[in-house]
Write a structure and sequence with these properties.
With about 400 residues, the protein is an alpha/beta fold. Helix content is about 50%, strand content about 10%. The protein contains 16 helices and seven strands. A four-stranded mixed sheet has the order 3-2-1-4. A three-stranded mixed sheet has the order 5-6-7. Helix 3 packs across helix 16, helix 6 packs across helix 11 and helix 13 packs antiparallel against helix 15. The longest helix is centred in the C-terminal third of the chain and has 27 residues. It is globular.
């Protein structure tokens, strides 16, 4: 067994031990692993184990069971970085996953490894270009710059391959993404040559190519923007942010990065990158960046873009991210407030009006959130989701 095979076997053994503890909690139906371990691409000592859970249908005592599950998972997280994030679904919500993120769901359909319980639903659905574009620009929100600041060649290589994979799906060269980065690199080498992968990965060159790939996608799906003559640097407050962020727009992918790009809060990319990010990932950002992006000829997002963004925020797994995955409690609460504010306009099929970001007074602790806020939020989110699905004229794949 080679080094890679040994690493995957060792991590899978750890996953089975941790999964057994999770499966023993009341209300847990299925435990499975996702991402690097599922794809067989563990980097020993650097990768973590990302779990997914399916819960039994809601029943009396659901909140108590969820809090007990949270405590178990937080104890497992003491072994970080081995134990990563965990996404928690009901059976019906997992089917909704194929609608809200068909790009990642396509990969999980082929790669997720069931550890305990019945298998997850595996539904073959098309991956529309919009879903691939959202995944392509996802990496610009902190991930890329964090890796670039640290000159992390491993992560920059990963983000480069992920970006090409998503671009190829958006451009309809692929029907669905490759499961592994090995397959992605082989396909890229075959179609465009492999010079970029020879020798040591240059993080700055990788960043430029990632921006260039986004430019190709932009040319295919969006109208051309006016060209910048020099970098534009400005401050703007994201829709759920408590502080302003620094936005650094560079004229071309090869433009040397100004010193402001080194700030920890910087969003860095070409105008085309930001236009794609606003249109496909975070339309609520548009009012904050409109003075610059609109000046370059970018069109505002349509109401449907806001409706999809609200649908993603009202998903049950999103409400269960605090303590299990990356979202803080205040981010989830503010996200649901944004959904509430937006629904009246979306009912008229109009973009929501610009307004100040939702403010949340105080931040409850994790157990307080699940006991005092989560039941009400979940009921509200399910009602909002049904309404949004009807407004968008879409249905959940495979739902009985």
């Amino acid at each position: 067994m080679g080094r890679g095979g040994f690493a995957n076997a060792a991590y899978l053994a750890l996953a089975r031990l941790a999964g057994r503890l999770l499966a023993a909690r009341a209300g847990v139906r299925t435990v499975f692993v996702r991402r690097s371990l599922a794809a067989g691409e563990i980097d020993f000592g650097r990768s973590d184990i990302d779990f997914g859970l399916l819960l039994e249908p809601p029943a009396p005592g659901e909140v108590d069971r969820l809090v007990a599950l949270l405590r178990t998972y937080r104890r497992l997280r003491c072994f970080r970085p081995v134990i990563g994030e965990c996404l928690v679904y009901t059976q019906d919500e997992y089917r909704t996953y194929y609608l809200l993120d068909p790009y990642r769901a396509s990969i999980d359909r082929r790669a997720a490894i069931r550890l305990y319980g019945p298998d997850v639903p595996r539904i073959r659905v098309p991956v529309p270009p919009a879903a691939a574009i959202r995944r392509q620009v996802h990496w610009f929100d902190r991930y890329l710059m964090n890796a670039l600041h640290r000159r992390n060649r491993r992560n920059m290589r990963k983000f480069l391959l992920e970006s090409w994979n998503a671009h190829a799906v958006a451009a309809e060269r692929l029907r669905e993404p490759y499961v592994t980065r090995r397959e992605t690199e082989a396909a890229w080498r075959a179609s465009e040559g492999g010079r970029l992968f020879e020798g040591r990965m240059d993080p700055l060159r990788a960043f430029a190519v990632i921006c260039e790939l986004a430019g190709r996608t932009h040319r295919r799906f969006r109208k051309p923007l006016d060209r910048l003559r020099e970098p534009r640097i400005f401050r703007a407050r994201p829709p759920l942010g408590v502080r302003e962020r620094t936005f650094v727009l560079i004229p071309t992918p090869d433009t040397p990065l100004p010193r402001q790009a080194r700030r920890a809060d910087a969003f860095v990319g070409t105008p085309e990158v930001l236009d794609l990010f606003v249109r496909y990932a975070e339309p609520f950002l548009y009012p904050a960046v409109e003075p610059v992006l609109g000046d370059l000829g970018a069109e505002p997002p349509p109401w449907r873009a806001y409706a999809w963004a609200c649908l993603r925020r009202a998903a049950g797994p999103k409400l269960r991210e605090p303590g299990f995955a990356g979202s803080p409690v205040e981010g989830v609460l503010a996200g649901m407030e944004l959904v509430r504010r937006s629904l009246p306009s979306l009912r008229r099929k109009e973009p929501p009006p610009a307004g100040p970001p939702p403010g949340i007074a105080g931040s409850p602790g994790l157990e307080e959130y699940y006991r005092d806020h989560y039941p009400r939020l979940l009921a509200e989110a399910r009602e909002a989701s049904e309404e949004l699905l009807e407004l968008l004229g879409v249905s959940v794949p495979g739902q009985r």
